[in-house]
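WARN  no MSA supplied for this record, continuing single-sequence
INFO  ligand: 6-O-phosphono-beta-D-fructofuranose
INFO  echoing inputs
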Amino acid sequence: MSNKTKCVGILTSGGDCPGLNAAIRGVAKSAMANGSRVVGFLDGFRGLVENRTMVLEDRNVSGILTNGGTILGTSRDKPRKMPMGDQILDVTDIAVANAQRNHIDCLVCLGGNGTQKNAMDLCKKGLNVITLPKTIDNDVAETDITFGFDTAIKIATDAIDKLHTTATSHHRVIVCEIMGNKAGWLTLGAGIAGGADVILIPELPYKIESIVDHLLARRRHQKRFSIVAVAEGAISQKEADEIKENGKKKKKKKTYMDDDGTYLVEETTSTKIARKITQACGIDTRVTRLGHVQRGGSPSASDRLLCTRLGTKVGQLLAEGVYNVMVGVKNDKCVPVDLEKVAGITRKVPSDHEWLKTALLVDTNMGCELKI
Ligand code: F6P
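INFO  complex generated
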């Protein structure tokens, strides 16, 4: 079979995650094996717009499988709305023109939901694209899993394990804030795997009374420690009602003044919940925000395997000339899905998901009355 893609462009965009280098390697090695030239664009779509490139050769993608981060760099910039000097411009045409200037037959974009949308914009302007689903949030549509999720869930689970020992010694409640943007996959998965006593996710608005009742019941049963795993995007029932009414959450940032009178720190989801627990029942409560540690370090064995499978599947599609798809995972197979079905959709935890049922069966409080 003749190779349909002589020159491949590749970029990584959005928040980084472990596995990006493994995926770059998978795409590049398989494309090179078919005789394609591979050009990397630096720092996501901004590098494409600014025409900052790096020709990838075998030696560039050797030895990167196990490395976290991305050798290409990344950014959250989107061609549709890119800050350029003091303006925000639609530079989609420049992005497409630069791809053409570099003789790119197809641009491979590795990223999460934002990236799928950006790639779709370029595709609408006539550029061939293929995307891969990358994010620790696991919230990309039309795929059973995104790469980076497995590594992040392990990091968060490990953190919950560690918090357990100290919470037990001090008979405390520890609220652990986990990333995931507006989806609860990471918190739910790590919460179950780490045995969190309360799990709060954006899909299920919480009532503080439900959480406090559960914590007090545990105390009555001589369980004098508790771990609350809270997703950064978790919202209270009151906030959910507000969103229903006004379309979005009112920005009510609780702030603290530093002693020099200038520095303001906003209250986060986890500090707010910890404060409310202490106010409601006086239990000694601490907060741990895992933050970007969840996106750092070497990818897990499963992520390395997944990235290599997805990347080499891209190589195969490039050779066949199959474009404008995202390669997702369905029933443990890497399959191309129409990009149009993916772009602009966030995959949330469905209210009847089996993981929720699992959590309930081990007496986890989900911050609300939940019957499945
Ligand atoms: O999408 C990945 C993610 O880590 C989210 O879980 C989180 O909300 C966001 O990125 C953080 O973004 P940044 O790295 O730009 O602070």
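Residues 149-170 form the longest helix (22 residues).
INFO  checksum written, moving to next record
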